[in-house]
Design a protein that fits this description.
Number of helices: 18
CATH superfamily: MFS general substrate transporter like domains
Shape: globular
Number of strands: 0
Oligomer: single chain
CATH topology: Growth Hormone, Chain: A
Distance between the termini: 32 Å
Strand content: under 5%
Length: 394
């Protein structure tokens, strides 16, 4: 006898829903801190004696780790309960501190890029899966937008916390304190999931649930990849981009906070908009506006204008990544959303690997961020064209 996720979601109690969503919000809040990397990048370069391309690769590796965890997530979600999965996500970030404390590029690459990257993807992907299960379709966008918003707000908080810690401690201690706080909060989220008794595994006698045929995967993949390229590049290089435009370190740090805050708020709002009007039209507006912001950033100079445009780009990115899980869930249904999103999410991982690395490489060779910004603008336009040809899910 098979009980589908769709059927089980109808029997989820209000208490289970509240505990599940609360735990997921806390977990994704912590996992979003991986995007506060740009506040650590210069300290890592000084400690490990590396240049911008090498330090950018640490962040790119972290994003690749996030991608792998989301890609293989549907298999893990079917085999393990919520608590042991999130317990692993609790242990991994703090375990990486032993490696980052070596002060070497390889230590940061594995400790931050691999360990924390995989933990971040595990927590983020599972939270989307769990919230998809407990939310009704008419409120799905709001629920998934809240998860994505919490992810962005985590980046806000730790973008403030890390610079504050670095003024009092050296890099090793500052990062160890941050990783310790992250692990504790994820552990609390895991306990909330344990108390909720939410069942995220399919109760099926079948060895494998039949998967649907591909529904426009190429369009979904290209639209997502080109759409998030700008945001991932901006977030990964926010501090140095603002500084090259004449901004101070304080202005750049404030920019990181406002960028993440804008992305978090936008995720919640656009999740609601997707519930009301569908996903396609909002996505087109977001990508076109992002392209315009990028072109303006290339054409005009000035620290204040750069700050405003970077906040705009990051806000649009936050909105885009909030809508895409809803789009995929609506196209494939709750039963297959984790499997489908894992495949589509590789586009985010590919962009995450290429965007910061390419921006660092071009900066080292030209001394300017104009070339990567221009590339990101062109890709945003292509994304808008591709997304326009997707089916509307409203």
């Amino acid at each position: 006898m098979t009980t589908s996720i769709e059927e089980r979601s109808l029997s989820v109690s209000l208490t289970q829903t509240i505990l599940t969503i609360s735990g997921c919000l806390l977990i994704t809040f912590c996992m979003g801190s991986i995007h506060a990397f740009s506040t650590l990048i210069e300290s890592i370069e000084l400690q490990a004696n590396i240049e911008r391309m090498a330090s950018s690769f640490i962040y790119s590796t972290g994003l690749a780790g996030v991608t792998l965890a989301v890609f293989f997530g549907h298999t893990l979600y079917r085999r393990f309960k919520a608590f042991p999965l999130m317990l692993a996500a609790t242990i991994l970030p703090f375990s990486g501190v032993a490696l980052t404390s070596s002060g070497t590029w390889l230590g940061w690459l594995i400790g931050y890029g691999v360990f924390f990257g995989f933990a971040s993807g595990l927590g983020y992907g599972f939270s989307l899966h769990a919230c998809t299960i407990v939310s009704a379709k008419e409120r799905r966008g709001l629920a998934l937008g809240a998860v994505t918003g919490a992810y962005a707000l985590g980046a806000v908080t730790f973008s403030v916390a890390y610079p504050a810690l670095l003024t009092k401690f050296d890099l090793n201690i500052a990062y160890a304190v941050g990783a310790g706080v992250i692990s504790i909060l994820i552990g609390i989220g895991a306990i909330l999931l344990l108390i909720s008794r939410i069942e995220t595994r399919p109760k099926s006698d079948k060895k494998r649930i039949e998967k649907p045929r591909h529904i426009g995967f190429i369009k979904l993949w290209l639209g997502y990849c080109f759409g998030v390229f700008a945001g991932l590049m901006a977030i990964g290089h926010a501090v140095p981009i603002i500084k090259t435009m004449g901004g101070s370190s304080q202005l750049a740090s404030s920019g990181i906070m406002l960028m993440s805050l804008g992305g978090g708020i936008a995720a919640l709002i656009t999740g609601y908009i997707a519930d009301q009007f569908g996903c396609r039209k909002p996505l087109v507006v977001l990508t076109v506006t992002s392209a315009i912001s990028l072109f303006l950033l290339v054409i005009f100079s000035g620290a204040q204008l750069a700050l405003v445009l970077m906040i705009c780009i990051a806000t649009l990115y936050g909105a885009l990544i909030a809508i895409y899980p809803t789009l995929v869930a609506n196209l494939f249904g709750k039963e297959h959303s984790a499997w489908a999103y894992g495949k589509v999410f590789t586009a985010w991982g590919f962009a995450g690997l290429c965007a910061p690395f390419l921006a660092g490489w071009l900066y080292e060779h030209s001394g300017s961020y104009n070339a990567p910004l221009l590339i990101a603008a062109i890709l945003s336009i292509i994304s808008a064209i591709v997304v326009y040809r997707l089916p509307n899910t409203h």
